[in-house]
Queue: 4 jobs
Job 1
Amino acid sequence: MGVTSQTQALSLGEGSTPLVSAGRLSHETGYDLHLKLEGANPTGSFKDRGMVVAVARAVEAGARAVICASTGNTAASAAAYAARAGLDAVVLTPAGATATAKRAQAVAAGARLIELRGSFDDALRICRELGARPGFVLVNSLNPDRIEGQKRVVGELIEQLGAVPDVVALPFGGGGNVTAVAAAVEESSLDVRIVVGQAAERPTTWASAIRISEPAHAEHVATLVSDGRVEVVTLSEDELRRAWHRLAQEEGAFCEPASAAGLAALTQLGPGNGETAVCILTGHGLKDTGAVEGLHEDAPVVAAELDAVLEAIG
């Protein structure tokens, strides 16, 4: 799978996202830690890497519309690349489950957004049925073209790092990105430990991007685990929140809550011994600003005078 000589050239400038050293967190975790900022992709998440390939291949196949089930990031990405390619986009999402910013992205790009009285798994089931009909192409990560595009992140971070990392850590929601990273590692015969973090409270987790009770790639990820190629760490809501706070407040890396699952997983496993580790932060914090609500005090309102400001600073 992947692009062919007949595939339409299609891009919004995805990839080449920053890889930054995390000095303070390196000291605290015992790893030589680096952060791969996938929120710098065009629609703000890692989904763009695979979506550009999936949509380009849909055009090649003569599709009139792409379809996806989504809690937000897939919807935003599918809508943007469909618009770029001149295709329609249909998005099915559980009612009330999509962060406002992600919904806005999909709607702004012209997607037909339909909310279901059901779960993400219901949405994906219906999308798979639609995808079997002529003219529709499913662009969830069950589409192998998505996996092909997402594999590129591994080669890219190695190029930026100038070496193969000892550990790569990332979130585990539906399992598509886990599948892609593991495939890239295997195909290049790399000796890399892959650690993934999932929410203990999958159906209701605060980290909405991984709020998936039945991962589409669950069986494959289970095989990767049994083969010793992937380690799955189950995280409490408090662990996710603490990791998210640390990334923003200690490194200035404002990511959406699910993106912190890799760091939370590494932290739960205990301190490193100087190994080089890369945490893939899968989405930008502006994707879910609602996550900040209730986690901070309101800003004080004071007189427009220096003394009042100094007093507020304390």
Note: The mean pLDDT is 93.
Job 2
Amino acid sequence: MNSGARGRRRFAGAALRSLRQSVGIGQAMMAARLGVSVSYLSQLENDDRPITGKVADALARAFPLDWTLPDDDTGVQRIESFRTAVADPLFADLAPAEQLHRIAEQQPDLAERFIRLHAAYRRAEEQRQIIDESLSSGVPGDQRLPWEEVRDWFHEAENYIDPIDRAAEALAETLDTEPIPESLLIHVLKVGYGVETVTAGGSEQPDRPLRRFDRERGVLTLDRAMAAETRLFFLALQLATFAIAGPIRTVSESAVLSDVARRLLGLGLANYAAGALLMPYARFRASARAVRHDIDRLSRRFGVSFEQACHRLSTLQRPGARGLPVFFCRVDMAGNITKRHSATRLQFARFGGACPLWIVHEAVAIPDRILVQLAETTDGVRYVSMAKGLVKPSGSYSRSPRRYAVALGCEVEHAEAFIYADGLDLGNAAAATPIGISCRLCLRERCDQRAFPPADRQIVIEPDVRNVVPYQVL
């Protein structure tokens, strides 16, 4: 290797030593997990040797959530980005990982171009799916409804809004308690903003709104029939609309959206701020890692609902301190996806329902029970997913309760940090349920649950042959 290539190598001894100490293991165990000798690890930690591609790959596999590269370590960051790109199943037949790392080290310009090309490919693939879904559903892609504009805006923002999240975290620090009690929020609203909180409604007034704020009188009215977690969230929402008004207004006004969508985005950002207030970023992220993302334990610790905790996990995308890369969605009784976000390679259908083989549909019919599933999408990526059916009482026999399910999952490589993977046969590819995005986009030729043929494939009808699906996909 020439001197220029050697000069590009980076040292990260302090970061490596900090990682080992933070996870509480000695040099011998760390060396074993990385597949190196103790003496070699000692040299790495003392900056006597640079972080090579092979070591970077071992660190990424052994500590996917804990290994953070120094900000100025552009060489190692390039290798990590290159490693992530070539991990796409599209490149499954490429050279061995060690050889690819040498390419990233020795030909940085080529690696950078490959990384950008792969990112462009992923964006183009998402756009193709959007167009395919639009055509097959009869909904023109340029005629989005306001809520679809807002949904897409949050997706493009990776479901993380930095100025609002940090402002909410700072506000939570001033309250200095965990979980934040309802009485404290009521007190802060009264003393700080002159807002009186009252409860009303219930079984005698079933049509009363869950929440109403009278700006002229300064009175916040909450329905006494709703769950305590929902009431706490609405109090946090009201406080956020006052205390974090500046960042919310700045972000919403800068969004390139229609007028109605921009107003709807303002409401969405206020809800985002409420969740960030009740579940401050650093504390929530640390707690989630400590309990391996056990939603029930997180809900109890922060005084929030199961769904709120799941949703918050999907927002942990702060640069330099990201959480477990998960997908999150909410599905109603009809199979419609009413909330969705993915920090993984899994992308949800924009129109219609999700794959019927996905465990979330079964969870809708079985409330208060957690179901788990190992699934594999058509691109060969495997996921561990958890789904739970939930019921929100209406407070009156005359109104049906809301029934739906939430799902949360991660790619199988992060299974060690996801408690719901325990007990699954992760090493057995045959144990994974084959799923797709939706029937209109799924290319699986043999699927007994198919509702529609793929939008871009022709079908053949054989009058004398009948399978479960009455046609063959070409």
Note: The radius of gyration is 25 Å.
Job 3
Amino acid sequence: MSDLEFDVLDELYFVQSYNGLGEATGFEDDLLKKVLKKLLSKKWIKGLSSMTEDIPYEELDFDKDFRSIYYLATKSGLLAHNNQ
């Protein structure tokens, strides 16, 4: 796990919006998008359409909707984060 991935996962113990993550991490837009895409590919985070409704991975259109998606660490993401 990279330091950047660790920092993003650190913010995703609770549901966060894209803008909230940007503010919390201080990452520029391109960097945050890249890290989120990597974490999604590892299934360490999941996307939500609202604070409570998951978006199935196969239905997630990250490149189109990444700014409007909410994010949350998955169980495997939390385990990876805690083992660092």
Note: The domain at 3-82 is CATH 1.10.10.10 (Arc Repressor Mutant, subunit A).
Job 4
Amino acid sequence: METFDLDDIRAARERIKDKVRRTPLLRNATLSERLGTNVYLKIEIFQKTGSFKVRGAFNKALTLTEAERNVGLVAVSGGNHAQAVAYVAREMGIPAVILMPKNAPATSMDATRGYGAEVMVMETVHEAFAKVADYQQRGWTFLHPFDDAKVMAGQGTIGLEILDDLPEVTDVFASIGGGGMFGGVATAIKSVKPEVKVYGVETVGANCMRLAFDAGHPVTIPAITSIAKTLGAPSASEATFALAKKYAESLEVMTDAEAMAAVRLILERAKILVEPAAGCTLAAAQRLKSRFTPDSHVVLVICGGNFGLDDLCR
């Protein structure tokens, strides 16, 4: 896979600036008091389609040739990436097919279809990835959810916005999943301020990066059992694994119960409903609060909010 750097992330910001929202970074008084420091939420749930994923999807799609656009995009996702690719395809007039595992939330499938993409339901995410080759042989462009330099550079624009809005940032917590957003954000932040600590966060049952760290190489999870389905990459890639090894201060693996307690706290005190995949960042920051001082400036990347009220009640 081609590599990317800070210049590529800056180019991505210029490329997608008219296509995505610049999301707010807000200090939260309650969370700051609980953690004994300054806590900020980077609220990507206010991004188009409800998550950060459109950043990378637009950055990739906008680099395609006219011939590639005329054929179409194919993607694999059980949630946020599916909606992002469908939305990007609609906005750019590109055909799109999204291969989704049958256990993907019905709300995600409905939203993906609502953006105009064709949804193909597969037995598992592994079968979905295997099916991609059929489309690639016919000239379709595979828009990978994380293992793509342009996708990661697009996600890295979150890091640039954090640095612009909070130059004094000391710590950043980002969900890691397959590692694309973490890799992009960490590259942006550490390239400008190497002293900033960037933590990766996963949940038990969706912890492919922790398992890769333990094994010394990417490994495949047979099934995603965590409630945090949007962290459900079957494995990290060689590229995202390398970036996590290079930049992660630590990897924190939280339980579903810890993630959901954080979702509830954020809803009650920040008045936003976030996914467990985002709530787990608060859970991790609470676990590590002894590392912060009153002068620390801690950012939680609230990566997505595609989590319905029915999901919360259940």
Note: Residues 258 and 283 are 6 Å apart (CA to CA).
